[in-house]
Amino acid sequence: MKACSERRAWTRAGGRLTVSLGRDGNKAAGAWLLFFALLLNLKANAANLIWINPAGGDWNVATNWSPNLVPGSNDNATIASSVTVTVNSPAECSGLILGNGTGSAPTIAGSSTLTLHGASIWRGPTFSGSGRTIIETGATLDINEFGLFLNSRILENGGTISWKPTSSNIGFISAVITNRPGALFDSPECLHTEFCLRLEPL
């Protein structure tokens, strides 16, 4: 019996990549379809991760989270307790909820970058260290009634930050907030009160 070999022809037409398989390419095609289906499934099933280490620790250690995964760009993360979480290597997530709404809130420390891609709510956290926290383009941040304290850290806004200064404070010690071109720092109460924050664009 003559063995058949797989034949593939790759062509580009109208911005699409077309794959033509030979008679014996069905198995390979099935394998590729399964691979892409798994990728789409992983993307669709983003995790909701909760910090569980009462002693604090490193953001990038999976066992500090439940389930035991390090947050990725599609995952939502929640840190409700008063722990210190260090970010000493690049980290990211979709939405980030900080604080439990009753006065307990974490400290995010460290020297690296934490990038947020989705909708976040902060209820009184502290950010310290020499690193940078980025609200990426298209992302949103609601600074809730418990406010925010920045200690020697950069908060870079590329999306939309909402803050009501009459119900919460933003504290600074050698910290910087930057606003990218096209980003919005929304504080409508500044139109009516003296509690205002001046931002300089990058």
The beta-strand count equals 21
Task: Provide the spatial order of strands within the biggest beta sheet.
Answer: 5-3-6-9-12-15-18-21
The sequence of SSEs as H and E is EEHEEEEEEEEEEEEEEEEEEE
**Beta-strand percent range:** 35-45%
In the predicted model, the low-confidence regions spanning at least 5 consecutive residues are: 1-25, 39-43, 191-195, 198-202
Q: Mean pLDDT, as a whole number?
A: 80
Give a description of the structure:
The chain has an eight-stranded mixed β-sheet, with no helix packed on it. A six-stranded parallel β-sheet has the order 4-7-10-13-16-19, with no helix packed on it. It contains one helix and 21 strands. By secondary structure, it is mostly beta strands. It has one helix at 26-44; strands at residues 8-13, 16-21, 48-51, 57-58, 65-66, 76-79, 84-86, 91-93, 96-98, 107-109, 113-116, 119-122, 126-128, 132-135, 140-143, 148-151, 154-157, 160-163, 170-173, 176-179, 184-186. Helices cover 9% and strands 39% of the residues. The model is unreliable at 1-25, 39-43, 191-195 and 198-202 (pLDDT under 50).
Which features would summarize this protein structure in a list?
1 helix; disordered C terminus; mainly beta; 2 domains; eight-stranded mixed β-sheet; 202 residues; six-stranded parallel β-sheet
Quick structural summary:
The protein is mainly β and 202 residues long.
